[in-house]
Protein: Tellurite resistance protein TerB
Amino acid sequence: MRRCDVLPGRGPDERAAVTGLPRLLGTRTAWTAVGDGEFFCPGCGGDRNYQRLTGQRRFALLGVPLLPRGATGPVVECAACRRHFGTDVLDHPTTTRFSVMLRDAVHTVALAVLAAGGTGARGPLETAVAAVRAAGFEDCTQERLAALVEALAADTGRFTDEPCAAGLAIELHEALDPLAPHLAAAGRESIFLQGARIALADGPYTPAERDTLSTVGAALTLCATDVTRLLTVARTPS
Structure:
């Protein structure tokens, strides 16, 4: 006789009772939708609709919910794959939102570096326009960027060759702080290098450009050693 045929110390009736117990008793959860929206679903790997759910657990007898066991959740349920995730999944931007954040970050960095070095030379404007167009502002022109730099200088009260003013630093952090946690190191360094190459397009870094790029690096959570390394890397033609 095989070992699995006998449960030590239990007769046939007891074995049947043990086998049937999970079918008699269990826990059921009744979910209630409390919100919805769009999110990046880790299970699907793309943007999907979701429902935010809260649940009430109950003991169930023969599949019928009876005694309450307390609340559970909230959770996020994907409308496509129906998987449940913790609500922290909503902290990750959707693909669409991420693209907008990245585009705005490159645009803000370009403006900040141009504001530090001025728009009198053609090289920085050309380099900045190429970076901004590649990021998603396809209709960007040198004239528009130059006008925005002038407006930025008037708004912040900052002149060319001055250190990064508080207002400009705030704008950089507002554009880069929400994005940085969702970028790999290579992505953060790429944004920094775009700014550095704009600054180098008309010659060596000025003190104001270095100060602005240091602010960019801090907002991108790059350490001082990495900032120094990238300032050197940017001098090497890509």
Observations:
- The chain has two domains: 25-91, 95-235.
- The CA atoms of residues 78 and 154 lie 47 Å apart.
- The chain has eight helices and four strands.
